Request: fold
Amino acid sequence: MKYSYKYIYLFLIGLTFFVDLSYRNSFSFAEQNIDINLEKEIKKGNFLIGLKQYLGKNIIYEDYINFKANDQFLKVESTNGLKHQSKQVKIVFKKTPIEKPYIIEKLVSKPLASFESAKKQSDILVKKGFKPTITMPSHWEIWLPIEDKDKVNQNFKIMKMTINYEVVPYLVNKYTFQKLTGPISIISDDLIKINDTDYGNKFYLIKDSYGTWTLVQKLSFAEYLKGVLPHEIGANSPLEALKAQAIIARTWAIYNSNRFEADKFHLCVTTQCQVYKPSIANKNIEKAIKDTKNKVLVFEDKPINAFYHASNGGISASSNESWEMSNYPYFSSDYDFKNLKKKYLYPSLKKRDELKFFLKSDKNNFFGKDHYLFRWERKVSDKEILNLLHTNNLINQNSKILDLKVTKRGSSGRVMKLEISHNNSNGFITLVKDDIRKSLNFLPSNLFIIDKINDNLWVFTGGGFGHGVGLSQSGAIEMAKIGYSYEKILKQYYKKTKISNFMNLGQ
Reply:
């Protein structure tokens, strides 16, 4: 049956107006009357996780999902009244022409490096009286109604598109081929296999803001963490480090549960959120989750934005060093020394020479020294840098890189502004904070110095892996190994916070 659909799709291409997905994704198709309340699910202790996004994106070959129950029946229910029960079903997504094509218009921001940058800009717009929507068609961006076109700056462009088709899901098995409308629920009393991988027993298919669909899994906090901890800090990490990770992963997820509000689910499963994969938890993970049940980190009795990363390279960052956002009072640029007295050896890492001295210092003085990127070096040619800038639509391919210059560092030494001079008419490009690593993706972190080896080659010398804000996972692992409790680990990285029970916060 799969191959027969190919001919249908080829025929549909002749009937439908084809546009690139990056263009099509700039418009909202999300279901308006959806019986899922994101806020209420959090209060009940549940997360809605987007397991697979953009279903139906492929214009030639079909997107499909196989659902299979082990012993019990699975039940499929669609809002068009269809109810189906069997041990196995296939749901196929087809692009179907519509009778009356229509035009939609929106104002769309330029791509943004992170949700944090998008949130900052969105908050500014809200204060000015706008009603922005944060979306992620492929990169983070902000949408505004077309009516605001004369009120916003050049960062927004008008996107206009004629809609000639819709993505329609169909239920397929030996006995039926039926159209479905969303939201669609797939539930069972038994574990459900999705494309031959065991998951949970409660799922939804929801139309997103881009005309495609998302497979959403409903999970309790505990079930979610079982699939996060092994893939974030590692299943074999010491127990106290696992407990610290359980608390901050739970806290981060609650704080950021509006990240995909436009698409009617809480969080994704990639590094744009927290990595989640269905996993069989070992005893230590089970114990870490159980012993910290419902515990979160709070500041002024509210869950914090509990950022974390792999390695801070010996010094943590404040949040406004890494993203375009106001700084949180519980983050600061603090050395990760085993002996705090040693911090006086490095009075200011804003200065290049002192940062260079810091990066060459004995790594045994720091927590997390064993991470493979605690110290690193990258030799990069002009051509490689040019190709990356061109890929990000920042420079023409025939340009020449003239110079790389750090123009601003934060108190942790991390680069906040990088100026790239070139021979084009505008003269230079300025990369800021998270845009630096997004555009120059060979950089493990923004904690680096630059030296020019010759006319065509640069060397970046740095430390750490990730943004550097909050808990350093490699630091937490080492602290746990030498006897620190999870409470002391958290206090090391989240100043001015305390541990509280989420269910007692009036949430």
